[in-house]
Amino acid sequence: MSLFQLEDIKKEFKHGSTKEQILKGIDLELNKGELTALVGASGSGKSTLLTIAAGLQDLSGGSIKFSGKNMTEMNAEEVREVRAKYFGFVFQHAHLVPFLTVKEQLELMLDTAETKWSKKSREARIEDALTTVDMWEHRDSYPENMSGGEKQRVAIARAIIHEPEILFADEPTASLDSKRSVEVMELIERLARELNITVLMVTHDNDILKYAERIVEMKDGKIIES
Ligand SMILES: Nc1ncnc2c1ncn2[C@@H]1O[C@H](COP(=O)(O)OP(=O)(O)OP(=O)(O)O)[C@@H](O)[C@H]1O
Ligand SMILES: [Mg+2]
């Protein structure tokens, strides 16, 4: 079932008086619970496409439909609401807050979430998310005492604690060694399979492509294979 559709997405950046077209008409559909990998040379536009899809950056043309709703017709506040309720994000670096414990990182996320949960349900959500990423034992640790893979798993817990429909990930394993990359990918694959989360993931790493159900390749702002 198609959950998310990008239609004829265009993006241009101004460099002085000239305009450069970075995305040249991208069509892409994401199916519920499917893990799609977005690959392509550096500068081909992968991160730009991901941030536009996630509503983090404006587009120059085209439309984005999520659950049948046209996000390009929404105002900024409505887009923010969709993002906060239904989308999760993971980046190359975990970006944890250095002076908060693992559990506090997630509490902070729930404080800023759109939905307000009761204390009991907040506790249960935190335990669930940390158990999913196998970090519950580390709930009182600070980032400086964790490995790169552990930090990334906490970042993933933070991204899924509000039970998003779509997880957008930009090179989530790029800062990890191969063993940690495999762990993080197995986790992301499990999120798609067991929790039915739709995943769009940018990667450079050929070794982790086997986890993707679908591989979409970009070249010079266009999709060349999907
Ligand atoms: N805010 C911006 N202003 C101007 N140009 C930009 C901006 N963001 C990206 N670009 C340009 O758009 C092109 C695509 O960038 P993008 O970051 O999407 O590539 P990418 O495929 O993610 O590359 P990488 O694999 O290196 O991360 C690049 O030429 C980049 O310089
Ligand atoms: Mg990029």
Automatic annotation (TrEMBL):
Q: Where in the cell is it found?
A: Cell membrane
Give membrane topology per the record. Answer: Peripheral membrane protein
Describe the location of the ABC transporter domain by residue ranges. Answer: 4-226
Gene3D superfamilies cross-referenced by the UniProt entry: P-loop containing nucleotide triphosphate hydrolases
Q: Does the keyword ATP-binding apply?
A: yes
This protein's GO CC annotations? membrane protein complex; plasma membrane
Q: What InterPro entries would the database entry show?
A: AAA+_ATPase, ABC_transporter-like_ATP-bd, ABC_transporter-like_CS, ABC_transpr_LolD-like, MacB-like_ATP-bd, P-loop_NTPase
Name the major location. membrane
Q: Which UniProt keywords apply?
A: ATP-binding, Nucleotide-binding, Transport
Keyword field contains Cytoplasm: no
GO molecular function per UniProt: ATP binding; ATP hydrolysis activity; transmembrane transporter activity
PANTHER family in the cross-refs: ABC TRANSPORTER DOMAIN-CONTAINING PROTEIN, IMPORT ATP-BINDING PROTEIN
Q: What does this protein do?
A: Part of the ABC transporter complex hrt involved in hemin import. Responsible for energy coupling to the transport system.
Subunit details: The complex is composed of two ATP-binding proteins (HrtA), two transmembrane proteins (HrtB) and a solute-binding protein.
**Family named by the database record:** Belongs to the ABC transporter superfamily. HrtA family.
Q: What is this protein called?
A: Putative hemin import ATP-binding protein HrtA
What organism does the record attribute this protein to?
Jeotgalicoccus halotolerans
